[in-house]
What we know:
By secondary structure, the chain is mainly α.
Amino acid sequence: MSDLGAGFGYLVKGQRWAFGHGRWFGFGLLPALITLVLYAGALTGLGYGADDFVSWATPFADDWSSPWLGLLRNTLVVLVFVFGMFLAVITFTAVTLLVGQPFYESLSEEVDRTEGGEVPESGLPLWRELWISARDSVRILVRVALYGVLLFALGFIPVVGQTVIPVLGFCVSGYFLSEELTAVALQRRGMVLKDRLTLLRGRRMMVLGFGVPLALAFVVPFVAVFLMPGAVAGATLLARELTAPPATDPRPASPYTLQKD
Length: 261
């Protein structure tokens, strides 16, 4: 549980850092605003078209009597929209980071600089960084889509589908959201996707403590835009923690410690 609280602490520290550095906060808003306009249009279209899509996908229920027809299709409409929101939470970050790669790279470097110590740089040209980010984002989104399909199917289970499955969905969203955000700092440290996933699995509770509250907040319209700069800052702080060398005991060895021959 301590790791869970620590992860949430890095989320709060990141927001505090962003709001305390006004120029960088404004700098980090631009890519999120551009992406928000695109996603607002997509979700609006989904909201208007979900009824027609469900009706088209369930022709076998056309002759069902009331209330079963309405119950089935209304449930499916809700699930389609929830699934769309689930994908939006994950893909919003990926698309925003891709659009704002130079912005967030600079912001992440500034966080490292203000926190002291080494400020890693990838040394790669911008086009190469964009290619790596896009490629890794697609790989992550494939994983998310597979989880999404599974959770969508499990959503039909009575009671469990309306209680446990949404919780699991936000845990999955939060985990991969953390991966996308920490990738900015970890790529500068020379870590490829496989190594990053291994690193995050080693501190899963800390990653969930950071990502799940953020995934919940991102569901609220416009919140994602204003939290994005702080999310990148917090993810950089989290990455520093995850890659920090293990602390050594500063106490001198006891003179009574037995030494092996």
